[in-house]
Amino acid sequence: METTKDAGVVPRGGAKAWEVGLRLLALALTLVASIILGLDKQTKVVPLQLTPSLPPLDVPVHTKWHYLSAFVFFVVANAVACTYAALSLILVICKKPLASSAVIVGDIVIAALLAASGGATGAIGVMGKEGNSHVRWAKVCDVFGKFCDKVAVSLVLSLLGSLTFLLLASFAVIATNRRSR
Amino acid sequence: METTKDAGVVPRGGAKAWEVGLRLLALALTLVASIILGLDKQTKVVPLQLTPSLPPLDVPVHTKWHYLSAFVFFVVANAVACTYAALSLILVICKKPLASSAVIVGDIVIAALLAASGGATGAIGVMGKEGNSHVRWAKVCDVFGKFCDKVAVSLVLSLLGSLTFLLLASFAVIATNRRSR
């Protein structure tokens, strides 16, 4: 009797459940990451000492996610990744022919896009938290603590999303390589 | 007569030349990127006006690549990518069995690593060039122009390196998928 492999038909049944699960996870992670940072803003009243003889003046200062281009890149990249996760989920469930390579390559590109936006947000986040005396950029997270905490949460979720796409691509590569032997 | 594919032997001859070429290109790009940024420093004499009645005082200011953690991440990531490119080149040339999946997954991980370090360096580079009035971080590239130019060159080379690894992984995925059909 001819086996499934010999007949040229690729067995895919077992892979379906974990692939759908991982794509749903990636969709949720990138969606929540983009929403958390896309709604992130904080207003805080800080005392401003104009002259030593007068009492400090309370001045409201505020920050929003779109004040920094790295955060805009992050929100856009996560929105793109989330949309792609939904589209690839439909392709995988419908088992469209010729979509297999496109979906793996798509996973790789989206993982790299999320890594780039994560790197950008992480670099600005670290600068906001630590500051840098050499370029005289002061830390701002001691004023905007809640804002920075949300940036950190979004960043972790997005990096987990990137890792999920990396896992999807890697598992698919290993499975396809096994079938081609 | 049985064809090569039917006999279960995977034809790989044609892919060899471009794969070796792309790996050598990735090695060169990441090596040059890490060297350019890893040697980047600049000292400049700037006039400092202490009081209006006195002439400005010439003060030397200097910057080095390791003053910013994003640049350290960039140099380390490119050095890792360069080492990986050399190792994967040996594996591909020696045609080690079972190395195929590992090399494709390695390409994907390194592409993402380079994208992350590129994102971090790009975000700090843009901040250095443009500054940001909201967080009161002043632009520094008008003082350290040559330093910033070298950062930009390294960044472009590294992103091309990341693209090369993406292409290597994508071509391998498409070729393997074709063979598995």
Strands of the biggest beta sheet of chain A: in what spatial order?
1-2
The chain-level structural class of chain A is mainly alpha
The helix content of chain A is 55-70%
Our count of domains of chain A comes out at: 1
Order of SSEs of chain A, N→C?
HEEHHH
Topology:
Two copies of one chain form a homodimer.
Chain A: H1 16-38, E1 41-48, E2 57-64, H2 69-94, H3 99-130, H4 145-180
Antiparallel strand pairs in A: 1-2
Structure description:
The structure is a homodimer of 181-residue chains. The first copy, chain A, contains four helices and two strands. Chain A is mainly alpha-helical. Chain A has one domain. In chain A, strands 1-2 form a two-stranded antiparallel sheet. In chain A, helix 1 packs antiparallel against helix 2 (69-94), helix 2 runs antiparallel to helix 3 and helix 3 (99-130) runs antiparallel to helix 4. The interface between A and B is large, with 50 and 50 residues.
Summarize, please.
2 copies of one chain form a homodimer. In chain A, 65% of the residues lie in helices and 9% in strands.
Task: Name the descriptors.
mainly alpha, disordered N terminus, elongated, about 180 residues, homodimer, 2 strands, 4 helices, two-stranded antiparallel sheet
